[in-house]
Design brief:
The complex is a heterodimer of chains A (about 290) and B (about 575). Chain A is α/β, with parallel strands linked by helices. Chain A has ten helices and eight strands. In chain A, strand 7, helix 8 and strand 8 (about 245-250) form a beta-alpha-beta unit. Chain B is α/β, with parallel strands linked by helices and about 575 residues long. The two termini of chain B are about 40 Å apart. The chains are: A alpha/beta (about 290), B alpha/beta (about 575).
Chain lengths: ~290, ~575
């Protein structure tokens, strides 16, 4: 059986020292091993940006695509081969700006893909512009007077769309982060995991320290029931979205693949491409 | 008895015009006639003038006719808009209900037939289109029996009574016209056909059927005219073969989902028209860069922007060849008939996997939606070739620590072995960033050159595609070579027949492979002609530019374009050729 070391490769990430993404990478590698996966059974599809490089840092199949389209690529891959464990990953710009349309529809569609967003509330690779997760008033290169747009609340959005699995974690809490990813991998259907992954170079506001002071671990909230969507929404609003843990899970909602008529358990890519002459003739006869 | 005839039915969209055309043409097809139909419609659901022009013949045909013999009109607008196409003593069969009148200067026979009244008497006003079919039958001399099977196929699920009522409507329409006495009525009775069994299909159906036969099992697409029939067919058929269609949120998702699925090992496709293809261009570059096979259909319509969404045009050529940023290997093929659409789609999937690159099947609205008779398709011609794809259970050498499978290994032909996610010891990286043989990002100049040369070197003019240029060149030395692509093949051929009768020597070369450009094959044909006329449904001469750029001989090339939203008529091309040969220009 594979251990987390089997999911490592020797590629040195091009992330800045102290970047939150290192923990996400480590947690992912641990989570894969913990749920009993082998490297060839995993495919990571990532977007563009600092975080998008993650697919190259895991010893598994990986596709680093175009900006904002990790989710449709990942869904296409999962539909092609249900036997694979498919993870999509990228930054807040990738998922909530250029790719927001796909995020919303991936939630609606519910293909069994685990989506890990590395949310640093800023654009890092382009050297420090505002992100849709930047708070109003946040000063960046592109918003020297402070952002006048409101930030997106991805978890509230996901809940409003009746997502089957909504979680949030923080790079400093490797144990919780690993656990949350494991549960996301095990969840049948789309899972959204937003990870506060601080940018130590360009975001001087939402720092490790800032998060430590502001986030609330859901485990510490007495009587919190993550099967209760209304409570999840209320809790998010009460804490301005700054909670960690599995916020909501609906284990009853079947994944998209299970709802497709005639869709086999065995991966589509493993099935025979040929049609029989009898099938061919029958299809042709419809045009006679 | 006549050998060919042109018939048109028109009215407000949603009035049953399509089904009148469908029923008559299906019956004619089963009788063994050759057919070619073109629908004129608007981008709306109900209302607005719509018509179907159907040409029927005892011989193969590949074009709409210049003129019209019979016009069936459900409203005055149909007469006003179309009567000018009628031959001098053609016939208008019009519903008596709207008091039809003949526009000034039109000499055709106007026969007012109580379509609606008869339909109401039979039981339902909607059946007026069946009465009209019957009325047409009286002129064409078709036996009623030709319709029974067609009507049963269409309505039996609604009950025998519905079948009988429809048959009655046809019969009464026929009888009404038969009893009229009309002087100077031309002979519209169709000569006996060869009785051969043929198919009657639109190009989009042929592409979709071809995709099933080629083993495509996943489609991701966003609805758009004139491509939606492809996804609609596959939505109906793929579940039977274990596959599915995903209607995506947009074309960005459609193409990237298609790429993801192909990366996963399924033969997947997407289809759209110009606006959708414009959105897909970045991702097509990803497929080229990552050497991921994928098949994309572009059904051209009037552009730019929303343009003329339901009208004929061929103006996406340069965009399909060159719109992606950077330089990638890409194949663009252009079938010219429904039959070619079927076989070419199978070839497209094979070439996509053989060359590990995107393949664009370029059609135009007339190919995609024009309905035509097709000889029975051959099961034996369906061959699946997956190139250098390795099976899931491939016995690969154990990878060492941190070692990756050389997915982009430099090889003689530039094509590397491909492992699919899930394959043991096949792990590699895939990225749109320039990469090394294992797929890892690399910016080294040496690697860059090697990889660019590898990717671009995969394709040459001869990619093994059937008939890159369809040549019909009976003359060793021709006065004129006419070049076109997509739906104009039959129209050009018909124009040539007329020119030959005038003693002109005209050859034809129809371009089916647009990228890589078949320079040598075209040059060979062009050097044997005094003049070259390139016929295109666009305003700027896109294929003309490609020929000048690749082949040269610019001094003898002329462009003849049409961009009013309508397909060419044979007479237009005939006249353009004559102008060019007589006056030296057009």
């Amino acid at each position: 059986m594979a251990t987390f070391k089997d999911f490592r490769n020797k590629v040195k990430p091009n992330w800045c020292p102290g970047c939150g993404d290192f923990s996400v990478l480590a947690a992912m590698q641990r989570a894969f091993a913990n749920v009993g996966l082998e490297p060839e059974e995993v495919a990571i599809v990532s977007g563009i940006g600092c975080s998008g490089r993650i697919s190259g840092y895991v010893n598994a199949y990986g596709l680093h695509g175009v900006h904002g389209r990790a989710l449709p690529i990942a869904q296409g891959l999962k539909l092609a081969n249900r036997d694979l464990t498919v993870v999509a990953s990228g930054g807040d710009g990738d998922g909530f700006a250029i790719g927001m349309g796909h995020t919303v529809h991936a939630i609606r569609r519910n293909v069994d893909v685990t989506y890990v967003v590395m949310d640093n509330q800023i654009y890092g690779l382009t050297k420090g512009q505002t992100s849709p997760r930047s708070a109003q008033g946040f000063q960046t290169k592109s918003t020297p007077q402070g952002s006048i747009e409101q930030a997106i609340s991805p978890l509230e959005l996901a809940l409003s769309l009746n997502a089957g699995f909504v979680a949030q974690s923080f790079s400093s809490d490797l144990k919780q982060l690993t656990h949350v990813i494991e549960e996301g991998l095990k969840h049948k259907g789309f899972s959204l995991i937003n990870v506060y992954s601080p940018c130590v170079t360009y975001n001087k506001i939402n720092t490790y320290e800032w998060f430590k002071q502001n986030i609330v671990n859901l485990d510490t909230l007495e009587g919190y029931d993550n099967a209760n969507r209304a409570q999840a929404m209320q809790t998010l609003m009460e804490h301005d979205g700054l909670v960690t843990g599995i916020l909501y899970q609906n284990k009853e909602r079947p994944p998209y693949e299970a709802m497709i008529k005639g869709f086999k358990e065995e991966g589509l890519a493993k099935q025979d491409l040929n049609i029989s002459e009898e099938q061919f003739d029958r299809l042709m006869a419809e045009f006679a | 008895m006549i050998k060919q005839l042109s018939w048109k039915v028109g009215g407000q969209q949603g009035e049953g015009i399509d089904s009148a055309g469908e029923i008559l043409s299906t019956a004619l097809n089963r009788q063994g006639y050759h057919l070619y139909a073109y629908r004129h419609f608007s981008s709306r659901i109900k209302g607005g003038h719509s018509n179907t022009k159907l040409r029927m013949s005892t011989d193969p045909i590949g074009s709409i006719a210049d003129d019209l013999d019979i016009l069936v009109a459900f409203d005055q607008e149909t007469i006003d808009l179309n009567a000018h196409e009628l031959i001098k003593n053609g016939v208008i069969l019009a519903d008596e209900k709207f008091d039809p009148t003949l526009p000034e200067g039109i000499t055709a026979h106007l026969l007012a037939v109580p379509f609606t009244k008869i339909a109401e008497e039979v039981g339902m006003a909607q059946m007026k289109n069946m009465v009209a079919v019957g009325a047409s039958t009286a002129l064409l001399g078709l036996p009623l029996a030709a319709f029974r099977e067609v009507i049963e196929g269409r309505f039996l699920k609604k009950g025998q009574k519905v079948v009988d009522k429809n048959m009655e409507a046809i019969e009464r329409g026929r009888d009404y016209v038969k009893e009229l006495t009309i002087d100077d009525l031309p002979d519209f009775e169709l000569a006996v056909s060869d009785g051969q069994k043929r198919l009657y299909m639109i190009g989009n159906d042929a592409i979709a059927f071809g995709a099933v036969a080629a083993g495509a099992r996943l489609m991701a697409a966003y609805p758009i005219t004139p491509s939606s029939e492809i996804m609609e067919y596959l939505i109906r058929k793929l579940p039977e073969f274990g596959g599915t269609v995903v209607q995506t949120e947009d074309e960005l998702a459609a193409i990237t989902m298609t790429i993801g699925a192909n990366y996963g090992g399924v033969r997947a496709l997407t289809a759209s028209a110009g606006p959708g293809l414009s959105l897909m261009t970045e991702a097509i570059g990803l497929a080229g860069m990552t050497e991921t096979p994928c098949v994309i259909v572009d059904t051209q319509r009037g552009g730019p922007s929303t343009g003329l969404p339901t009208k004929q045009e061929q103006s996406d050529v340069l965009s399909m060849l060159y719109s992606t940023h950077g330089e990638i290997p890409k194949i663009v093929i252009a079938p010219s008939s429904a039959e070619e659409c079927f076989y070419d789609t199978i070839e497209a999937f094979n070439m996509a996997e053989k060359y590990q690159c995107p393949v664009i099947i370029l059609t135009d609205l007339a190919v995609s939606l024009g309905k035509q008779t097709v000889d029975p398709l051959s099961y034996d011609r369906v061959q699946i070739d997956r190139g250098k794809l390795l099976p899931f259970d491939a016995d690969l050498p154990q990878l060492g620590d941190s070692e990756l499978f050389p997915r982009y290994e430099l090889t003689e032909d530039g094509i590397s072995r491909r492992t699919l996610p899930g394959t043991k010891n096949g792990i590699h990286h895939v990225t749109g960033v320039e990469h090394s043989e294992t797929g890892r990002p690399s910016e080294s100049a040496e690697n860059r050159i090697n990889m660019m040369d590898k990717r671009l070197g995969k394709l040459s003019q001869d990619i093994g595609y059937t008939n890159p240029v369809a040549v019909d060149a009976p003359h060793e030395e021709a006065d004129l070579l006419v070049i076109g692509f997509n739906s104009t093949k039959g129209t050009i051929a018909e124009a040539r027949e007329r020119l030959e009768l005038d003693g002109l020597k005209v050859n034809q070369a129809h371009v089916r492979q647009l990228m890589p450009f078949p320079t040598d094959l075209l040059a060979e044909q062009m050097k044997n002609a005094k003049k070259v006329l390139v016929v295109e449904n666009n305003a700027t001469g896109q294929l003309t530019s490609l020929i000048k750029m690749n082949v040269g001989m610019a001094e003898k090339i002329e462009f003849y374009g049409k961009y009013d939203g309508n397909p060419f008529y044979p007479a237009e091309i005939t006249n353009a050729c004559k102008e060019l040969l007589v006056h030296g220009n057009i």
